[in-house]
Design goal:
Layout: H1 3-42, H2 45-57, E1 64-69, E2 96-101, H3 102-131, H4 135-150
Antiparallel strand pairs: 1-2
Length: 151
């Protein structure tokens, strides 16, 4: 390998490293920081955590969590609503509090947190691609590498 190829590979790997680091570390950290700053302006973060924790476990057995569920409304097929009537509200009834297993609630909460994290990672990668001038160079290198493999 000549020096030019080594420089191109090192430049490419450094750009990929920067994209991965920004997407997986920097963007989620900034999003969490901004989220917590906005939460702290509205009210006490610790107070919010305590009140939510009390709502989930107040007067419940040790292996249960109290959650609020809404009944799903069944849509009737083929029934035409009159245009004069306003549309019905989304939730006609208040939520029904029920007890669910702690493990089910933990899986649901963990899944939501992971989805939130991966959405921020994807958004961070898109932001890096848009704001980084080197993105066109990286994509060009990927295209030339694909073309070499096809030959």
């Amino acid at each position: 390998m000549d020096d030019k190829a080594i420089k191109e590979i090192s430049y490419f790997s450094y750009s990929v490293y920067r994209a991965v680091f920004f997407s997986l570390v920097t963007a989620p950290a900034i999003a969490l920081f901004v989220g917590f700053v906005f939460l702290s302006f509205n009210n006490s973060i610790a107070g919010t955590f305590l009140s939510e924790a009390r709502n989930y476990v107040a007067d419940t057995p040790a292996d249960k969590v109290r959650v609020c569920l809404f009944k799903k409304q069944v849509q009737q097929v083929g029934v035409m609503e009159s245009p004069e009537l306003p549309p019905p509200s989304v939730y006609k009834e208040k939520c029904m509090t029920t007890l669910i297993d702690v493990s089910d609630w933990q899986q649901s909460a963990d899944s939501t947190i992971r989805q939130f994290y991966w959405n921020i990672v994807f958004l961070g990668f898109l932001i890096w691609c848009i704001l980084n001038v080197n993105f066109s160079v990286v994509m060009g290198k990927i295209k030339t590498a694909k073309n070499r493999k096809e030959l």
